[in-house]
Amino acid sequence: MFIFDYLLTYPEWGPLILRVALGGAFVAHGYPKLFKMYAGFAGWLDSIGIRPGRFWALVVGVVEFFGGIALIAGVFTQFAAFLIAINMLVAMAKAKWGKSRYVDLERMGWELDLIYFAAALALVFLGPGAYAFGW
């Protein structure tokens, strides 16, 4: 028995809430990578062994910014969420692995990346939910 049984009659709202929140976060992360600090981000990617940095900076920026917009709108939700999940796997493996898994402002652990990955993967399986403009 659930505390809020009446909420179980609205299962399509869960993915909607998840995709709007996750999409907003990725628009916020992708915008500066594409439009404000592209060269710096590309150089950083080169420095951690993701080459060519300029190419991958563009890919990451596009996936995060436009993928976030797609999630918010509910257009190509599963495809956008899949690309974001891959993005977060690479971020955890290349940039964060071996660092603290807990919040540590000096070492930037991977726990938030894991949550983003899990949320994106959930949307791959759940689909867009209510009020989506596409598939």
Automatic annotation (TrEMBL):
Subcellular location: Cell membrane
Membrane association type: Multi-pass membrane protein
Residues annotated as transmembrane: 79-95, 115-134
Assigned protein family: Belongs to the DoxX family.
Sorted UniProt keywords: Cell membrane, Membrane, Transmembrane, Transmembrane helix
GO CC, one annotated term: plasma membrane
InterPro entries in alphabetical order: DoxX, DoxX-like_oxidoreductase
Protein name: DoxX family protein
